[in-house]
Amino acid sequence: MSTEESAPEKGYLDMDLLRFTTAGSVDDGKSTLIGRLMYDSKAIFEDQLESIESTSKQRGDEHVNLALLTDGLRAEREQGITIDVAYRYFATPRRKFIIADTPGHIQYTRNMVTGASTANLAIILVDARKGVIEQTCRHSFIANLLRIQHVVIAVNKMDLVDWSEERFNEIREEFRKFASRLDNIVEVSFIPISALKGDNVVEKSENMDWYKGPTLLYHLETLYVGPDANHVDSRLPVQWVIRPHSDQYHDFRGYAGRVAGGVFKPGDKVVVYPSGFEAQVKAIHTADGELSKAYSPLSVSMTLDREIDISRGDMIAKPNNPPTVGQDIDAMVCWFSDKPLNARGKFLIRHCAKEAKALIREVKYKVDINTLHKIEDDNTLSLNDIGRITLRTAAPLCYDSYKRNRVTGSFVLIDAFTNETVAAGMIR
Amino acid sequence: MQDYSVTHLKQLESEAIYILRETAAQFERPVLLFSGGKDSIVMTHLAMKAFWPAKIPFPLLHVDTGHNFPETITYRDDLVERLGANLVVGSVEQAIAEGRVVEEKGPNASRNMLQIQTLLDALEEGQYDAAMGGARRDEEKARAKERFFSHRDEFGQWDPKNQRPELWNIFNGRMAQGEHFRVFPLSNWTEMDVWQYMKAENIELPSLYYAHDREVVVRNGTILAVSEFVQPRDGEVVETKRIRFRTMGDATITGAVESDADTMDKIIEEVAAARQTERGNRADDKRSESAMEDRKKAGYF
């Protein structure tokens, strides 16, 4: 495939990137769908294909089992279990894709939360025979909680319901009724597919001529994802201070980080948090030269017009638009550990480049993610539970609500004894 | 409306720089694993960018199998000098001499397994707590499961069933005494991304990557360059082929591909049309279905 010829609107050096995650239980055909997307977009190499062809034949599968492409580890093949999240890559002439491939059946919520945390879009698979089930609701709730703004409901196995338009419409109505309670999702698309046969995945289906919408791949290729990034609230979490100590750059003191929101320009007035010192941006540096503006997600370093004490963990922002600076955090968390979370538990919190001790004050409620009801009288969170907590940190954090900014509004909790990451948090 | 779109290469670059800075900040003694291959060359370039105008704040570690292409070593030494970086060499040759490892026997002997021990020894000796590698998730299915920050126990082992969840861009590099991390800033890059980036950044590469005429033998379907380490066996014919290398490693296991691509543009075209995976010609990966995974568990990249 010659990239240049088939992509008149974009050269291969300036393609953009879409990160998506897939959700659905094992039997919904998730692995088959990923295999199909990669196979039909020619992202599978001959040696890979030969290997899964021979394995399929050996197992006596009727078709080439595309799901084998995603079963990477020995233990997965031997035991038929799926371990944690894997990442897959493919590209078409229009766009590059990163798939967070989350296993369906073990450690359910934890895996989906992990995959969803970096995604712009979620594909939720629904079995056309079963329709909207508890799991569909659970996936949608997590996508909503993690603020994935674009969701595709891929109604799969249409071949098993005689390619029925009526059935598809029924599922769409069922889902819409449920989704009216989800406030973060901007756009939901419904696409009837057969991952096994390839209908409406890459190629338009001849079996469903009643469907006038795009194929799944075309939708993924053309979806506009620009507004996901926050270009309003200027935030530079300081990761590292660059001090060359060289003759040429004797007084250079660059504050290095990845812009988490908004736009910085030379001459801008900035405030450093939590100290509150003010300064002006002298220049924005990269190894390729100075920039006239820096915005998310670029990694840059910044020099200021005066010497102030700034270190890793501080946040550079604009005076008229500061982050919240505080030690009392109200957040939704997803619990990842076998050891349950109890009020009064002590952890380390990691937020942007800052790490501090944290004390859980209160578990306000737990969410029943199948019904979306709040369970108020239970103040522990067990593995895979999602709940609302308050916590107090030993040092002030500079944060935004997760709703406003996924970078400055998210954190993880770490068990200080085992060093395990035990929770993902989204600040309210 | 202002256009704040960022191309995929810029996004990958920015992400890798972020990871390199996180590594420098979170660990006491990080080290960058440098093999002389294109991925580690790109990583070194990114490290230069991440800390510019300061020098790279960690050394480069080359685990030298002793079976190098001379071009690789020349390139390495030039690069180190140009960047003003520190180079540490862990030598398999020396490990053999000291009896810490024993050379494999048999016709397909390779120094791959010996590299693992030499790497672990070098990490221990330098007391490095984070080793950055150029491995990418698209290379191999076991690598698709790898984290950016990959925890290794006191034996250097990877436990795929007990990996830390990695959310958003928050990386947890905390560990106990004696443990260390492997860090993979290029996790999200594909082979194509690496080539496109090298072109966009005008990165110089060892000549081995470009098509050239070379004396080779074809062994078990793999084209091997004849050298001091690879000598024709009975029945093998030495022929001159126009070849280039897609990956770079120990000269005894790195297979070449027949190619006329002698410029970056031609290589990109060739990679775009490739129907075989990059590592399809690495003899060490063909040993078993789980060869890479097993090496990773034992402490390899």
From TrEMBL, chain A:
EC number(s) per entry: 2.7.7.4
GO molecular function: ATP binding; GTP binding; GTPase activity; sulfate adenylyltransferase (ATP) activity
Pfam families the UniProt entry points to: GTP-eEF1A_C, GTP_EFTU
The organism's place on the tree of life at top rank: Bacteria
Coiled coil: none
CDD domains: CysN_ATPS, CysN_NodQ_II, CysN_NoDQ_III
UniProt KW keywords: ATP-binding, GTP-binding, Nucleotide-binding, Nucleotidyltransferase, Transferase
GO BP terms: sulfur compound metabolic process
Domain Tr-type G, chain residue ranges per copy: 15-228
Listed name of the protein: sulfate adenylyltransferase
Organism classification: Bacteria, Pseudomonadati, Verrucomicrobiota, Opitutia, Puniceicoccales
Gene from which this protein is expressed: cysN
Automatic annotation (TrEMBL), chain B:
Keyword Transferase: yes
Biased composition (Basic and acidic residues): 276-301
Phosphoprotein in keyword set: no
UniProt cross-references to Pfam families, sorted A to Z: PAPS_reduct (PF01507)
GO terms, biological process: sulfate assimilation
Annotated EC: 2.7.7.4
Top-tier EC class: transferase
GO molecular function: ATP binding; sulfate adenylyltransferase (ATP) activity
Listed InterPro entries: PAPS_reduct_dom, Rossmann-like_a/b/a_fold, SO4_adenylTrfase_ssu, Sulfate_adenylyltrnsfr_sub2
PANTHER family, A to Z: SULFATE ADENYLYLTRANSFERASE SUBUNIT 2
Protein family: Belongs to the PAPS reductase family. CysD subfamily.
Name assigned to this protein: Sulfate adenylyltransferase subunit 2
Species of origin: Pelagicoccus albus
